[in-house]
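Meet my pick.
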Amino acid sequence: MCWLVIRRLPTLSANEGGVRYHIDVEWGNKTRFYVDQRDNCALVREYAGDRDVLNCFCYTGGFSLAALKGGAKRVVLIDSSGDALALARQNVTANGFDPQRAEWLDADAFKTRHRLHEESERFDLIVLDPRMFAPSREHVDRAARAYKDINLTGFKLLRPDGLLFTYSCSGAIDADLFQKMAAGAKVDARILKRLGTGVDHPLLTVFLEGEYLKGLLLQIA
C-alpha cells in the first residue's frame, strides 16, 4: 500500500522597498508575487504622499502597500478575488499601517470604476494593472478596446493634475502600440515616464511574443 502525504507549504514573507509582503506559494496567480513591478511600486511610493489612491485589479496589494508606505491619505483596493484581498489586508496589518486608510472592495473592477465615477468619487493617483487582455495577436483588437475603456474611465476618476499608472502584460501588444491605446482615450495628458520591468527581469530576444510588462505614467494636462 502506498500513501500520499500532502503538506501545505507555509506562507512566505518578503521585504521589498521596506514593505513586508506575505506570499502564499501554493495559491495565486503565476509566481504569486509580481517581482517585475518592483521599480514601479517604488515609483508609486514616491508619488503617493498625501494623495487619495485607487488601485484597480489590486491582487494582494503590491501597489497599495507601496502607496501606504509613501504616505497616501487613503487607498481604495478593488479586486474580484476575496482571497487576494484577504492577503492584502493581512499585508496591511503586518506592516503596521492604519487600516482606516485602506478601503477594500471585493468587486468587478470594470463595473466598480463606472459606479465610482457616477458617485463623483475622485482620486489623485490611480493604478491600472489588469490581467492579460491579448494572449495572442488574434486578441489585439479586443484588447485595444478594453485598454481604451479602462484608461478613459481612469482619467475621468482623476482630479486635476492627477497621475495615472497604467500597465499591460500582454505580449501581443508592444510598448508603442500600448502608448497608442492610451492616446486612444483622447484625453489631454502628458507622458511623464515610460514604465517597464527592472533590469534583472529582462525581455528575451528569442521570445518577444511572450508576456512582458510595459506601462505609462500619465498626468492630466
Q: What stands out?
A: The first strand starts at residue 11 and ends at 16. The chain has one domain: 34-220. Residues 4-8 have pLDDT under 50 and may be disordered.
